[in-house]
Amino acid sequence: MGRSPCCDKVGLKKGPWTPEEDQKLLAYIEEHGRGSWRSLPAKAGLQRCGKSCRLRWTNYLRPDIKRGKFSLQEEQTIIQLHALLGNRWSAIATHLPKRTDNEIKNYWNTHLKKRLAKMGIDPITHKPKNDALLSTTDGQSKKAANLSHMAQWESARLEAEARLVRESKIRSHSLQHHHHFNPSAFTLESPTSTLSVSENAPPIITGLGVSPMIEFVGTTSGSSETVGIVKEEGEQEWKELGSSSNLADYKEGMGNSLSSFTSSLQDMTISIEGGWTPESLRPNNINVNNVGNIMEEGFTNLLLNDSVNRSLSDSGKESDENSGGSGDGSDYYQDNKNYWNNILNLVNSSPSDSPMF
DNA sequence: AAGTCCCGCAACCGCTTCTAA
DNA sequence: ATTAGAAGCGGTTGCGGGACT
């Protein structure tokens, strides 16, 4: 199977897109949908290869793209997910639905990577660099501070993992206990997961945490049509998704997110026989055959208990920014708040007040 | 004001994965 | 099961603009 020669064809335009080209592409997709990218350029009257059109559409012209500066929370999400998933930009992008993988990748390479490097943290391994430890002027105290920093960072990273597991678990749990919700529209198929749906409860599909908060909280009673109620992150009001098409869109988004997460789990190979270490929790050290059990037993409990404990012990600390809390005092919100604070403290610590500098 | 450097981002390249025949 | 085409993905490049000298 040879490579597609589409971009090698003579006469095809390369380089920056002109407004006219954008308009042609937009107009064509609005009228005909995406269809086959290969045949699209000719039909749309563009002297571009299909690949170029696809990229232009997915990275720039798509109407559901959020452009502009990344919020603090988005930054944090990227850092955490990168610690967990590595350079898997598309997987990371599924948790930032309005951002493209390309944009996230660029942002990581141009901003976040450098910031971590400044903090003395290896942006690849997310651990303090040896040279950062050795180059300090005040041997012992700096080294201790670095180790503390490392512990905090590792802790934050583990919490990110716990968070993903928790998301998966909550969603899975909800799917198993609720109905009025067509499971075929919300499949989660992976080698480690087979979902069943029971008969007697209303659907509550709750997406928590890293991804924008889209929560399916119920159905209107007595209606044969599935109606979801959603709240997106940053919004105060719950929205009712009365139309099946809107709901389907949300379901699709959630499904993508879930499948992405499960696929990321599939890549993990782990051995827990030697006990838990931070390294053993890294991707590629997780055996896919154990993932289901791990998630249901030790892994989730270990991390969630730890997270809750930490939240409780830290509950005296306050931060107004990105607390993610609604003020209802639930463990989740407290957990969420401390979780973000943890990252905030690391990311926002300027070189001048960092013990490393 | 002119030249140089640096940074951010859009786009490209080439490999991998998916899908349908 | 095999194959070829299409799409997806991540690494990299190069251009444009702002900062600096």
From TrEMBL:
Location relative to the cell: Nucleus
Annotated ranges, domain HTH myb-type: 9-61, 62-116
Family matches, as InterPro entries: Homeodomain-like_sf, Myb_dom, Myb_TF_plants, SANT/Myb
Taxonomy of the source species: Eukaryota, Viridiplantae, Streptophyta, Embryophyta, Tracheophyta
Pfam families the UniProt entry points to: Myb_DNA-binding
Protein name, per record: Uncharacterized protein
Record CDD domains: SANT
Any GO BP annotation: regulation of cutin biosynthetic process
